[in-house]
Specification:
The protein has 13 helices and 6 strands. The chain is an alpha+beta fold. It comes from Ornithinibacillus hominis.
C-alpha cells in the first residue's frame, strides 16, 4: 500500500519538461516567457536616440509654435471659428513635434515583443475570469516567491538607476553651479544634454538587468509549465485516444471486415487451400476485373471458417500448397492476382469449371 502511494506521489510530481502541445496551449492563452524590462529598456533606448537625432528639429518647431502663438494667435478674437482653427493648428504642430517619437516608441515596443515571443495575437487574457478577482488567490500572489523576486528586482533597478543618475549629476555639478551665468538657451541646452546622457546610461544599465530578468522569466515559465508523468499520459490519451477504446474500435472494425469477407465466400469460384493452414477464395468476374481477384483469405482458424462456409455453399476447394502460400503472402483482399500467378490460377479455374460441368 505504501509503495503504491509513493508511486502515485512521484507520478503526480511535475518533473517532466512540457510537451510541444502543452507549450502551444499555453501560448494560445497568452502565457509566454516575456520580460517587461526588455520592452521598457528598448523603448527608452530608441526614444532617447530619436530625441538625440531629432532634438534640434523638435526644439525649432516648439520655438516656432511659441513665437507664432505670442505674435499672431494672441491677437485673434475669441470666436468659435477662431478657437477651432487655433486648436487644429496647434494639434498639427504638436503632432509634427511628437509624431516621430511616438512612431519610434511603437516600433520599439512591437519589435522588443517580437524579439522575445514572435508574433502572437490572442484574446484569451481579456476573457472574464472570476479567479482573477478571487481575494484568496490574490493574497497568494502577493505573498508568493515570485512577488518577492519582483520586489527585489524593482529595488535593484531603483538602486542601479539612482546610482547612475547621482553619478552623472556629480560629474556635471560644477557646470550646474555656473548655470546662473548662462543665458536661457545655453542653460536649456546643458540640461537637455545632461538629461540625455543620464537617460542613455540608465537605459544601458536597464538593458543589462533586462537580460537577467528575461533569463529568470524563462526559467520561471519553464518551471510553471512542467508536467507530471501522469499529465503526459493523459495528454497522449487525449491526442491518440484511450488505448483500451482504440483496441475495442480496432476489434470492432476487424469483426465488421471479417463478416464482410465471409459474406463474399459463397460467391467465390474456388477456395485454394494448404490444405489446413491457408485458404484463399478466388473469383473471376469480367465485369469487375480483368483478372481473377481474391475475395477472402486467412490462416488457421479463419482458414477453417472459409473452408466451412465454402463447403456449406458448394464452393469447390482445391489443394495447392505452394499457390495458397504465395497468394496469401502476395495479394490482399479485393486485389487481382499478380501476373506471375495467372497460369497457376487459370489451371485451377479450368479444373473448377470442368468439375462444375460434370456436376
Amino acid at each position: 500500500m505504501q509503495l503504491r502511494l509513493d508511486l502515485q506521489f512521484f507520478a503526480g510530481e511535475k518533473t517532466e519538461k512540457a510537451t510541444p502541445k502543452k507549450r502551444n496551449d499555453e501560448r494560445k492563452k497568452g502565457r509566454v516567457a516575456k520580460s517587461q524590462d526588455v520592452n521598457t529598456a528598448f523603448l527608452l533606448l530608441f526614444v532617447l536616440i530619436m530625441m538625440a537625432v531629432f532634438g534640434s528639429f523638435m526644439k525649432d518647431n516648439m520655438l516656432a509654435l511659441f513665437q507664432h502663438t505670442f505674435t499672431e494667435f494672441i491677437h485673434w478674437d475669441l470666436t468659435e471659428k477662431n478657437v477651432f482653427q487655433l486648436f487644429k493648428e496647434i494639434m498639427l504642430e504638436f503632432a509634427k513635434i511628437v509624431g516621430p517619437v511616438m512612431i519610434i516608441a511603437v516600433v520599439a515596443g512591437v519589435g522588443s515583443n517580437l524579439m522575445q515571443i514572435g508574433f502572437l495575437f490572442t484574446t484569451e487574457p481579456l476573457k472574464f475570469d472570476l479567479k482573477k478577482i478571487d481575494p484568496i488567490q490574490g493574497a497568494k500572489r502577493i505573498f508568493s516567491l515570485r512577488a518577492l523576486v519582483e520586489l527585489l528586482k524593482s529595488f535593484l533597478k531603483i538602486v542601479v538607476i539612482g546610482s547612475i543618475t547621482f553619478f552623472v549629476i556629480w560629474l556635471f555639478k560644477d557646470d550646474m553651479l555656473m548655470i546662473a551665468f548662462k543665458n536661457a538657451e545655453n542653460a536649456l541646452a546643458f540640461f537637455a544634454r545632461t538629461t540625455l546622457i543620464m537617460g542613455i546610461a540608465a537605459t544601458i544599465a536597464l538593458l543589462f538587468l533586462a537580460v537577467f530578468d528575461y533569463t529568470y522569466q524563462k526559467y520561471d515559465f519553464e518551471k510553471n509549465i512542467r508536467m507530471s508523468k501522469q499529465d503526459i499520459k493523459d495528454e497522449y490519451k487525449n491526442i491518440e485516444g484511450d488505448p483500451l477504446i482504440k483496441s475495442k474500435i480496432k476489434e470492432k472494425q476487424r469483426q465488421i471486415s471479417m463478416r464482410r469477407m465471409m459474406s463474399e465466400i459463397p460467391n467465390a469460384d474456388v477456395v485454394i487451400t494448404n490444405p489446413t493452414h491457408y485458404a484463399i477464395a478466388i473469383k473471376y468476374d469480367e465485369e469487375k476485373a480483368s483478372a481473377p481477384y481474391v475475395v477472402a483469405k486467412g490462416v488457421d482458424h479463419i482458414a477453417f471458417k472459409i473452408r466451412e462456409i465454402a463447403k456449406a455453399n458448394n464452393v469447390i476447394t482445391v489443394e495447392n500448397r505452394p499457390l495458397a502460400r504465395s497468394l496469401y503472402a502476395s495479394v490482399e483482399i479485393g486485389e487481382v492476382v499478380p501476373e506471375e500467378f495467372y497460369q497457376a490460377v487459370a489451371e485451377v479455374l479450368a479444373y473448377v469449371y470442368r468439375m462444375e460441368k460434370k456436376v
